[in-house]
């Protein structure tokens, strides 16, 4: 049984490495890229707390990303009128262009998988990954409380 789990871990690890290989050239960390994608694609105004809740991470972790992305010119902070201590995160043009370029890579990878696996198996993979993500997020949330 342990051997099967080790094989499974190696398979997942290889998949992640192969999927990330084309994205090594990013000028930001992958966690920061996730935040940029959220900011650029969201129709809602995103605060650091909303971002932390979305990703299931701590506010200090988001604060670190915000500091780095602000210094890099990717985002700016805009105070909320009702409470000047709080702010929303606004993506700059630099962030928008990076997200657009990276999203085309992600779409290419997903298209490659769908074409290679077929629509039915690709849909099943996505369903199982969503289920696996939910299990892992629940576990993470339970450990953070």
How does this model look, in words?
The protein is mainly alpha-helical and 145 residues long. Helix content is 71%, strand content 10%. The protein is built from six helices and two strands. It has a two-stranded antiparallel ribbon. A hairpin with a 2-residue loop joins strand 1 and strand 2 (83-91). The radius of gyration is 18 Å and the shape is globular. The protein starts with a helix and ends with a helix.
What attributes does this structure have?
about 140 residues, mainly alpha, two-stranded antiparallel ribbon, 6 helices, 2 strands, about 70% helix, globular
Strand ordering within the main sheet: 1-2
Largest sheet: 2 strands, antiparallel
Shape: globular
Strand content: 5-15%
Number of helices: 6
Q: How much is the radius of gyration in Å?
A: 18 Å
Helix and strand run: HHHHEEHH
| Average of the residue pLDDT scores | 88
Helix content: over 70%
Spatial separation of the terminal alpha carbons: 31 Å
Number of strands: 2
Pick out the low-confidence regions: none
**Secondary structural class:** mainly alpha
Oligomer, anyone?
A: single chain
What's a quick, concise take on this entry?
The protein has helices spanning 2-20, 30-41, 48-55, 59-71, 93-117, 119-144, and strands spanning 75-80, 83-91. It is mainly alpha-helical and 145 residues long.
What are the SSEs and their pairings?
Blueprint: H1 2-20, H2 30-41, H3 48-55, H4 59-71, E1 75-80, E2 83-91, H5 93-117, H6 119-144
Antiparallel strand pairs: 1-2
Helix pairs in contact: 2-5, 3-4, 5-6
């Amino acid at each position: 049984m342990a051997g099967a789990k080790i094989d499974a871990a190696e398979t997942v690890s290889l998949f992640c490495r192969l999927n990330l290989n084309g994205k090594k050239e990013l000028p930001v960390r992958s966690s920061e890229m996730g935040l940029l994608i959220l900011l650029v694609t969201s129709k809602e105004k995103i605060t650091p707390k909303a971002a932390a809740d979305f990703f299931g991470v701590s506010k200090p972790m988001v604060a670190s990303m915000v500091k780095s992305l602000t210094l890099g010119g990717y985002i700016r902070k805009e105070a909320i009128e009702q409470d000047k201590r709080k702010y929303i995160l606004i993506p700059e043009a630099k962030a928008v262009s990076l997200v657009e370029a990276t999203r085309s890579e992600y779409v290419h990878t997903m298209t490659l998988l769908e074409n290679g696996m077929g629509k039915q198996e690709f849909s099943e993979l996505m369903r199982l990954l969503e289920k696996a993500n939910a299990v892992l997020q629940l576990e993470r949330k339970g450990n953070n409380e």
